[in-house]
Amino acid sequence: MSAATPVTAARLSAASPARGASRMWASVSLAVVAIAFLVPLAWLLLAAFDPSATYQTRIPSSLTLDNFAAVLTPQTTFIPIMNSVALAGLTATLTVLASLLAAYPLSRYRSRFHRGFLYAVLFGTCLPITAIMVPVYSVFVFLGLLDSFFGTVLFLTASSLPMAIFMTKNFMDAVPVSLEEAAWIDGASAMKALRTVVVPLMRPGIAVVFVFVFLQAWGNFFVPFVLLFSPEKQPAATSIYTFFGQFGSIAYGQLAAFSILYSLPVIVLYVLASRLIGGSFALAGSVKG
Question: Which positions ≥6 away from 188 have C-beta within 8 Å?
Answer without folding.
Answer: 196, 197
